[in-house]
Design brief:
By secondary structure, the chain is α+β, with helices and mostly antiparallel strands. It has helices at residues 22-28, 30-36, 42-46, 61-76, 100-108, 125-139, 154-164, 171-177, 230-252, 269-279, 290-293, 300-311; strands at residues 6-15, 18-21, 51-54, 83-88, 115-118, 144-151, 186-194, 202-211, 219-221, 226-228, 261-264, 319-326, 330-337.
């Protein structure tokens, strides 16, 4: 889908306040690591994740997302009553029902005419939310949209460690859950709107999406447990990314050297390096957050975009590629002209 009338008014993020290091996790897991004879420091030496952030105890996804939304709304200057839709894209939810979006909607005091719902599509959901909102804005259904995400990894981290410390766990089971320990917490939000109403906005040109759902079994998780075939997920994910990039070249006229920044959903060092190698991306154009934040799920892409903004790397006119992939498998790529 290509857009002529959609712009980003603001993007903001909130870093979770508590730094949890991989060294701390390794120390807690030491009894099992020694019993199984696991020598690799998987989290740091292979995944390249030295730490991740977690929230203070009992912080809900809706609370994290609300804080990011308030920041994005303040930066955009768009009045609360003008927001036509709120889309929550978090993997983490307060409850199965009601929707986390409805709780955030109430926290923000948005108008009763503002639609609100959750969109779930693993780590790809924020890009999906942007696409849904952009289509509504392009058609003139709404003037402004708010996309939010709040991820809380505290529960899954603690439950995974409990299972890994079981005296009965075997190496295969141990490694199948290890990806859960790469997860981090954080929150992000974005205000989008009709370009004519946002003279200082950043044009959202469009996006392409491709699916490889025959591999939906490679990563399956609940709120407290995730089982992952990391090697196969990497291989098949890269194949899908290559296919999606070819579609982006055709639809968006992409040439690698002409794009200024690449905002990649970041899982680990291996994933990020292989992604860059496959597509021929200059690593200098990728701001890496995984070493200190791990994998923040669908919040990863908007958090990186927000950090680039704060760093002053998003000068006016820069072409920014947003590249996301999620368990399923699904992949989306989009372009923003800052």
């Amino acid at each position: 889908m290509l857009f002529k009338h959609v712009a980003i008014a603001s993007v903001a993020h909130i870093d979770a306040p508590v730094r949890l290091t991989s060294a701390e996790l390794n120390e807690r897991l030491k009894p099992t690591i020694e019993r199984l004879g696991i020598r690799d420091n998987v989290l740091e030496d292979i995944a390249g994740i030295h730490a991740r952030r977690i929230w203070d105890k009992d912080t809900l996804p809706s609370e994290a997302a609300t804080a990011a939304a308030q920041k994005a709304l303040a930066e955009s200057g768009v009045p609360h009553e003008k927001i036509g839709i709120l889309i929550n894209t978090s993997v983490c939810r307060d409850y199965l029902e009601p929707s986390t979006a409805s709780i955030i909607h109430g926290n923000l005091g948005l108008a009763d005419t503002c639609q609100n719902f959750d969109v779930g599509n693993a780590c790809l959901a924020f890009l999906n939310g942007m696409d849904i909102a952009a289509r509504m804005i392009e058609r003139g259904d709404i003037e402004y949209a708010l996309i939010v995400d709040g991820e809380t990894s505290n529960l899954i981290t603690e439950k995974t460690i409990e299972r890994m410390l079981s005296p009965d766990i075997e190496e295969k089971e141990f490694r199948s859950e290890f990806a859960s320990l790469t997860l981090g917490s954080g929150a992000a939000a974005m205000v989008m709107g009709r370009a004519e109403l946002l003279p200082e906005g950043h044009q959202f040109l469009g996006s392409v999406t491709r699916a490889a759902t025959e591999f939906s079994h490679l990563c399956r998780g609940n709120l407290d447990r995730m089982i992952t075939d990391t090697r196969s997920l990497l291989i098949e994910g890269l194949k899908l990314a290559g296919k999606t990039f070819q579609a982006a070249r055709a639809a968006l006229g992409w040439a690698i050297d002409e794009l200024d920044e690449f905002v990649i959903h970041q899982i680990s060092r291996v994933h990020t390096e292989e992604f860059c190698r496959l597509l021929g991306i200059d690593p200098k154009k990728v701001h890496a957050i995984f070493p200190e934040h791990g994998n923040i799920g669908p919040a990863s892409v908007p958090i990186v975009l927000s950090k680039l903004k704060e760093m002053g790397r998003l000068e006016k006119g820069k072409r920014v590629a947003l590249l996301g992939i999620g368990s399923g498998l699904n992949c989306s790529m989009a372009e923003v002209v800052w």
